[in-house]
From TrEMBL:
It holds the Pfam family MazG. GO terms for biological process: dATP catabolic process; dGTP catabolic process; dTTP catabolic process; dUTP catabolic process; response to stress; TTP catabolic process; UTP catabolic process. It is an enzyme of class 3 (hydrolase). This is Nucleoside triphosphate pyrophosphohydrolase. It catalyses: ATP + H2O = AMP + diphosphate + H(+). CDD domains: NTP-PPase_MazG_Cterm, NTP-PPase_MazG_Nterm.
Length: 281
């Protein structure tokens, strides 16, 4: 198989250049052995990882980093499309055409005759109507049919709940969700004390699911909230390590009581810094 080496080395080659590079990498005679050996299944984890790295760059406002991460994510689409083309399933051009057709069809208020004088909430409702029609055309008639199984569990919980809520299966306010959290917490304690590990496992899942539901009712992204909590925990634990290192010690050389004091000190510093920022605004 021959490749357009001029295009491959052209700095302004754009998408045709990237597609040609991927074809060359997958060339069974002259390509990269690692790339040739890959499959949809082996590449899928990298695709998920790259999506998270895009999100991470955005959270850190690292715009130069975002540029690179978006390129990495784009490469994943190109990779899957190349493997699909080799197997005779579809091409990258098919992928681009399908998503373009979908965007045009889902935005008749932009690309069609409908008025664009809509609120975001109205547009969400219209979009769900269009998506329901698309599911019906694909013989997916269930409300939850196309909520992807491979989504992170927390994200999938919210998507399942949103989909059910759009057909009226939802609590009307947060007080009922809070009551359910109390109920599920009590059931988890009971399971821990009197039931089997499998039943305790199930109750923990129920509690996590209703916590995701509360986040949805509060219009909070639970995944983002948990990432922020992870970052906060990391900062404060590192503060503990730094304080102990100043005394030539490590956490394993300390006691829980000592580390609690250092944790609270780090928490107080963060709170003071946050208040100072508020006052300077």
């Amino acid at each position: 198989m021959t490749h357009d080496t001029t295009l491959i080395h052209a700095p302004d080659g754009g998408m045709p250049r990237l597609l040609e590079i991927m074809r060359a990498l997958r060339d069974p005679d002259h390509g990269c052995p690692w790339d040739i050996a890959q499959s949809f299944e082996s590449i899928a984890p990298y695709t998920i990882e790259e999506a998270y790295e895009v999100s991470d760059a955005i959270a850190r406002h690292d715009w130069n980093g975002l540029r690179g991460e978006l390129g990495d994510l784009l490469l994943q689409s190109v990779y899957h499309a190349q493997m699909a083309a080799e197997a005779g399933h579809f091409t990258f051009a098919d992928v681009a055409r399908d998503i373009s057709d979908k965007m045009v069809a889902r935005h008749p208020h932009v690309f069609g005759a409908e008025s664009n004088a809509k609120t975001p909430a109205q547009q969400v409702n219209d979009w769900e109507t269009i998506k329901a029609s698309e599911r019906a055309n694909r013989a997916q008639t269930g409300v939850l049919d196309d909520v992807a199984l491979a989504l992170p569990a927390l994200l999938r919980a919210v998507k399942l709940q949103k989909r059910a809520a759009r057909v009226g299966f939802d609590w009307p306010d947060t007080s009922q969700v809070m009551d359910k959290i109390i109920e599920e917490s009590q059931e988890l304690i009971e399971a821990r004390d009197t039931l089997t590990p499998a039943e305790t496992f199930e109750e923990m899942g129920d509690l996590l699911f209703v916590m995701a539901n509360l986040a949805r009712h509060l219009d909070i992204d639970p995944e983002a909230a948990l990432r922020a909590a992870n970052a906060k925990f990391t900062r404060r634990f590192r503060a503990i390590e730094t304080a102990l290192a100043a005394d030539n010690r490590a956490p394993q050389d300390s006691t829980l009581a000592e580390m609690d004091v250092l944790w609270n000190a780090a928490k107080a510093v963060e709170k003071a810094e946050k208040n100072a920022r508020k006052e300077s605004v």
